[in-house]
Write a structure and sequence with these properties.
By secondary structure, this protein is mainly alpha-helical. Helix content is 65%, strand content 5%. The strands form three sheets. Strands 1-4 form a two-stranded antiparallel ribbon. A two-stranded antiparallel sheet has the order 2-3. It has a two-stranded antiparallel sheet with strand order 5-6. A hairpin with a 6-residue loop joins β5 (252-255) and β6 (262-265).
Length: 533
């Protein structure tokens, strides 16, 4: 007898939104990942290129070393609370699709679909494209011919187009050697993941281990190579300025939108503004929930992997920022000729980690850092490719995505068609040059979906009080409520001061509503035909 899928085992778990595509003769996922592999997906998906770059922009807005650390501590607290809260949902519903399933079960199929829609259109595929192109750019450190300016086929330039608080366009479309490298990596890793979960998770384990060791090495080197002048500037007067001189009442300058007026805001507002960088450099920790159907003993290993993975990465992130502040002064000038003169604020192309390694090792430091980022981005792309396809598979099972995406390959037991659909859209985004802009637009939407999912935890506690919960969220209801309050505050601040990141994301999500109506109607028609109605 062939085992049933999770949807068959619990028919009530799937909403009646579409036709039934799962039968007892279809292959099922192989539970080929243990705790180490699940934790590697959490860590590998989180660590990309953001930690090496975003501290520069954050420093320019904050202007205070203590506030920089405070911002990362806020990120760490929110991410860890979110992971601990998701752990209950993951243990309660260990099914392929993860967050999509949690939203579907708590708030209804439309909420789940809008998340899956946004994930496919931008969140997952856009991140894959952006991280892949980052791989290509850092490959150029070793091979100068690999560059975003080295065009193979330049289709054209889309000029800037101001629309209210946003600026659309301003991008080059075509194939250059940097995005070609991205496409090659995305293709190679997609093909690898079609061979089976064991091979895909093995690749993830190797590269996650390598990049975590690289981060640990950078932290160790940074503390050894600390600069007395930088330490004095950042942890002396610069550090204590946060606490002294009425630091809590100091006003900070924030620009409203793109080219908007400068306004003065308080400490809680300015820390919320810079979460655009830190909070989403720590994103994608939820990807492991997408692969729940392939994790051994998921009711135990999913919550553990979320806690362990996020905890280790966030500790390393905070440590990295202390290292940056120990090697380079925070405050600098854009036109300075030296690393110390430019400081963290104006590190060349915002590559803070590269500047730190150059300060420690000279010219070879750039290559060492580039090598570490190549390993980091390669592993990040693999983890996101592996995980994302499982969401589209789950959507297809509910009749809310292309039917072929809901089939598993009989030999590899992987959603091969779903993987290649994800590959095609990610590669198109690489060529379009728009992925970075699109990612900016959905940052707000990502945070909204996190809030909705954790709110769903409260809903399910009310709707299904007797459901089996092998793990219960630590600190419930206080910590999940704290997360919601903090996230709603950040959303409100971003709506006010960063409209270029918010309204476009909301519009993209809302575009999914008519798409949902079409998918649902088609699914119901097929279901009625199948039952002879």
């Amino acid at each position: 007898m062939i085992p049933t899928t999770s949807q068959e085992a619990d028919p009530s778990a799937a909403p009646q939104t579409g036709h039934t595509v799962v039968t007892s003769t279809q292959p099922r996922f192989v539970q080929g990942m243990g705790l180490f592999s699940a934790t590697a997906i959490v860590m590998g998906s989180m660590i990309g290129s953001g930690i090496f770059i975003v501290p520069a922009e954050m420093s320019r807005v904050l202007g205070s070393p203590a506030l920089l650390i405070a911002a990362w501590l806020v990120t760490a607290a929110m991410t860890l609370i979110g992971a601990l809260s998701y752990g209950e949902l993951a243990a309660m519903m260990p099914k392929a699709g993860g967050q999509y399933v949690y939203l579907r079960e708590s708030l209804g199929p439309l909420s789940g679909f809008l998340y899956g829609w946004t994930l496919f259109m931008v969140i997952q595929t856009g991140t894959i494209a952006a991280v892949g192109v980052a791989f290509g750019k850092f490959l150029g450190v070793f091979f100068p011919s690999v560059s975003a300016s080295h065009w193979i086929w330049h289709i054209g330039h889309v000029p800037a187009w101001p629309v209210g608080p946003m600026v659309l366009g301003n991008m080059d479309i075509g194939l250059n050697t940097a995005n070609l490298a991205a496409i090659v990596v995305i293709t190679l890793l997609t093909a690898t993941n079609t061979r089976g979960i064991k091979l895909g998770s093995a690749v993830q384990n190797v590269f996650t281990s390598a990049k975590v060791l690289a981060l640990v090495a950078m932290v160790a080197v940074g503390f050894v190579a600390k600069n007395a002048a930088a330490v004095a500037a950042n942890f002396g007067a610069g550090w204590h300025a946060f606490f002294a001189n009425s630091g809590w009442h100091t006003w900070h300058q924030v620009q409203v939108g793109v080219g908007g007026p400068i306004q003065f805001v308080g400490i809680f507002t300015v820390v919320a503004v810079v979460q655009v960088g830190s909070l989403f450099s720590s994103d994608a920790w939820n990807n492991v929930t997408f692969t729940a159907g392939e994790i051994r003993n998921p009711r135990r290993n999913l919550p553990l992997s979320l806690a362990l993975g996020t905890g280790v990465v966030l500790l390393l992130y905070v440590a990295c920022n202390f290292v940056f502040l120990s090697v380079l002064p925070m405050v600098g000038t854009e036109d300075a000729a030296t690393l110390a003169g430019r400081g963290i604020q104006f590190a060349s192309q915002d590559r803070v980690a590269t500047a730190v390694m150059q300060a420690a090792f000279g010219g070879i430091g750039e290559k060492l850092m580039a090598g570490a980022i190549l390993v980091s981005t390669f592993g990040c792309v693999n983890g996101m490719l592996l995980a994302g396809a499982r969401v589209y598979y789950a959507m297809s099972q509910d009749g809310l995505f292309f039917k072929s995406a809901g089939r598993l390959n009989p030999k590899s037991k992987t959603p091969v068609t779903s993987l290649w659909m994800q590959w095609a859209w990610a590669c198109l985004l690489c060529l379009s040059g728009s992925y970075g802009q699109l990612l900016d637009y959905v940052i707000f939407a990502v945070l909204v979906f996190y809030v909705l999912t954790i709110f769903g935890l409260f809903v399910l506690r009310f709707k299904r009080p007797d459901a089996e919960r092998p793990y219960r969220a630590i600190g419930y209801p206080v910590l999940p409520a704290v997360y919601i309050v903090m996230a709603v505050w950040i959303c409100g601040v971003l709506l006010r001061y960063k409209p270029q990141y918010t309204w476009p994301g909301l519009l993209l999500v809302l575009l999914g509503v008519p798409v949902y109506a079409v998918w649902r109607r088609q699914g119901l028609e097929i279901r009625e035909q199948g039952t002879g109605e």
